[in-house]
């Protein structure tokens, strides 16, 4: 195991049947696919993703933290919008505009 690495707990991983399971986590550098900024997928973040959030062990971080936050916020706003649309009263003439099947 490389110095400074964190031991992986297989029992907490999402089931994968892999011949090459993750033995440990160490910081993995990457380049953000959205803004091209270099970032580090830290060993602590990896442990959280794979053991707490149960991401598949093949999942890689492809965006930097600020871009991930932006994506999360966009998805949250979309969910909120869809909930608002589902909860709104139908338009009084909606039956007129609905396609006849
Ligand atoms: Zn980015």
From TrEMBL:
Q: Where is this region: Disordered?
A: 80-101
Give the superkingdom in one word. Bacteria
* Every Probable zinc-binding domain range: 26-75
Q: Which Pfam families match?
A: zf_Tbcl
Q: What is this protein called?
A: Probable zinc-binding domain-containing protein
